[in-house]
Amino acid sequence: MSLHIAFGDYAVLRERCEVAILRATKHEPDYEDAAVVPTGEWRPLDPDLAERLRPAETTPDVALVELVRLPQAEPDELARMATGTFWPDHLPGRSSAEYLGYVVSEPQALTTTGNPASGRRIGLHIDNWDRLPVATRHLSRRRLCFNFGPGTRYLLLADLDVCAMSRRLHLGDETRCPHTDDVRWYVAEGRTLRCLRIRLEPGDGYIAPTELLPHDGSTEGQLQSSMAAFWLGRWSRGGVGPGVGSVPV
Questions:
Q1: Does 3 fall in a domain?
Q2: Do residues 31 and 203 lie in contact, with contact meaning Cβ atoms separated by under 8 Å?
Q3: Residue 1 counted as domain residue
Q4: What are 145's strand-pairing partners?
Q5: Is residue 5 part of a domain?
Q6: Which of 204, 232, 148 is nearest to 16 (CA)?
Q7: What is the extent of the structural domain holding 196?
Q8: Looking at residue 89, what is its pLDDT?
Q9: Is residue 206 part of a domain?
Q10: Which residue ranges in the chain fall short of pLDDT 70?
């Protein structure tokens, strides 16, 4: 399954989205060996790729990336929201959504997620909260994230899901639970994998199938740190609800 992003206007998506090839790290002190990261050679999103990203009516909601936005708020209010104190009052579906917490990402980070055990960054990875095998991986919950600022951050997404990688690497084994290592092996074999970088201003957010799509955050080129908070849930397309609007794309 390929990456699908809900959008209407190509020009608006292009303004906040760039593309690069992914590579594997080797003997880089900030990263685990073989971590998958962007080359940094970002280029604009072209129309042909944008059309391939556009979902069809038959694209399952659970496989869709959607951009959303919180109501306008002052910076101190955004910071209060990020700690979870606004949950569960502001978002519908709260009885079935799980608050995962928040992180503060320093500026100038190509990718943001680290491994506490090694102290090094892991690069693009997949989540495994639901730990479903390849055959039913598409039933995993999607993750909701908001950037609570004060800085801008990016969402990094690979353009191919981990089940497709796992099937190619493990001869179609449908019982296997995919792992970030599958992403690393796929790139290490010399297969081309693209990365989309989507800009998220303070108050912007996304809903994404992070158990399917290799992903990470980024603060590359930014001068301020940013705080991001996360939830897991089963939102239908456009279904985050009142008080949370769609980003106009």
A1: no
A2: no
A3: no
A4: 206, 230
A5: no
A6: 204
A7: 10-246
A8: 45
A9: yes
A10: 1, 73-95, 239-249
